[in-house]
């Protein structure tokens, strides 16, 4: 069903980011702001309507039975040139609520495997975690 809604690279990026935020079962206003900021930073907002894409995601979210296939489908459409950067955005979004759930950790492991990111995964995870800690604690 998701392949009815995700047909372009920008839609795939959008839905991957939404999936990262929704993975823990919560979606706070801070996470909405984070995803929206990423849209603007990456200039995805010029092609897509965030509210429509959010509705599309919510339409098929519960029907994702094989997350690996879903992620492979999305990554194939994105066809990333900078796989580490894409992974870091996803890790940042998973941590945007200040914690990393077991489900989010599993998602990041699956994503790293699909992107063929080995040892770099731990470094990126640590970097994103420390950046989030600095933002929250206001100390280095």
Summarize the structure in words.
The chain is mostly helical. 69% of the residues lie in helices and 0% in strands.
Provide tags for this entry.
140 residues; mainly alpha; 8 helices
Order of helices and strands: HHHHHHHH
Q: Could you tell me how far the N terminus lies from the C terminus, measured between alpha carbons in angstroms? A: 45 Å
Uncertain runs are: none
Q: So what's the overall shape?
A: globular
Report helical residue fraction: 55-70%
Q: Helix- and strand-based class?
A: mainly alpha
Largest sheet properties: none
Number of helices: 8
Q: What does the radius of gyration come to?
A: 14 Å
The percent range for strand residues is under 5%
Number of strand elements: 0
Overall mean pLDDT: 90
List the helices and strands and how they pair.
Layout (H helix, E strand, L loop, with lengths): L1 H4 L3 H14 L6 H13 L8 H11 L6 H12 L4 H12 L7 H13 L5 H18 L3
Helix pairs in contact: 2-3, 2-4, 2-5, 2-6, 5-7, 6-7, 6-8
What is the gist of this entry?
The protein is mainly α and 140 residues long. The protein has eight helices and no strands. The N and C termini lie far apart (45 Å).
């Amino acid at each position: 069903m998701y392949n009815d809604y995700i047909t372009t690279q920008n839609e795939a990026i959008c839905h991957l980011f939404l999936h990262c935020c929704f993975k823990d079962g919560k979606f706070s206003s801070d996470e909405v702001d984070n995803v929206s900021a990423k849209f603007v930073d990456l200039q995805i907002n010029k092609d897509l309507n965030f509210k429509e894409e959010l509705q599309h995601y919510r339409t098929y979210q519960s029907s994702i039975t094989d997350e690996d296939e879903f992620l492979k489908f999305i990554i194939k459409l994105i066809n990333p040139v900078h796989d580490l950067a894409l992974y870091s955005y996803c890790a940042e979004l998973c941590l945007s609520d200040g914690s990393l759930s077991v489900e989010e950790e599993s998602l990041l492991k699956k994503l790293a495997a699909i992107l063929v990111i080995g040892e770099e995964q731990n470094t990126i995870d640590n970097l994103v975690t420390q950046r989030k800690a600095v933002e929250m604690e206001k100390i280095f």
